[in-house]
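sorry for the late reply, my laptop died twice this morning and i had to redo everyting from scratch. anyway the thing you sent over, i finally got around to it. pasting the sequence first so we're on the same page, its 285 residues, then the predicted structure underneath. double check i copied it right bc i was rushing
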Amino acid sequence: MDIINCKNITYLYSRYVDEEKIHVEFEALKNVSLNIEKGSFVAILGQNGSGKSTLAKNMNALVVPKEGDVYVYEYNTKNTEFMFDIRKRVGMVFQNPDNQIVAGIVEEDIAFGPENLGIPPDEIRKRVDDALKIVRMTDYYDASPHMLSGGQKQRVAIAGIIAMKPDCIVLDEPTAMLDPLGRKEVINTVKLLNKEFGITIVLITHFMEEAVQADRIVVMEDGQIVMEGTPKEVFSRVDEMKNTGLDVPQVTELAHNLKKRGVEGLSDGILTIEEMVNELLRLKK
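ok and here's the structure:
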């Protein structure tokens, strides 16, 4: 079952060139079709300007397409009557957690969303407690969000979305501003939400090692989808990925270069160090 279905969507950005008073339109998305299955973990890759963030914003009606349609379940995002239903089902986490923190205390920040949904106080208390447990931030319920590390802030932002009980969370480069430890904390949380709680995940990322964790990868270039498949299928196409200006996991590139230099028998789509070690041990036998 699809939770999100983008059907042939085109989205335009427009601006005026002040000096000449000329109205300019730019196609950020060009006839894009993409379905997101309920319970899946999808990573979307692409260089800056490829359209991936614009696609993410279309998924919960922050923007709506000029042409084509986006459906969240049966709700068309162009119909403002369904805005509440759409936002309730698809939550959004942005790159900078400071832009989503609205309260001076962690628990108050997490309670903000459910309060705006009109949830009864007893249920809000339970949701806040449950969300803090899920993101492993129980010890920080009365802390000031602005005193937390970047990774902890992002986990609080995710907890705020969890407390609204969405079916899907779209994360737009949530680890871009974090150090390696913070990135690990956030990605571990995202994997937990998907695997243990069944929340559908759409992850926009620049980090190939994060995309490896997904069930499915979508690669965008110039407002269009140019590649799609499992991590093994996509990252096996090393040269094509390079042509789009993207990298592949370091160990995948190592395997690719070894094969170019005559090492025979290595499997395609090696994604992790463990897989590489097992392949080398197999070839040694």
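The mean pLDDT is 89.
thats about all i looked at so far, will dig more tmrw
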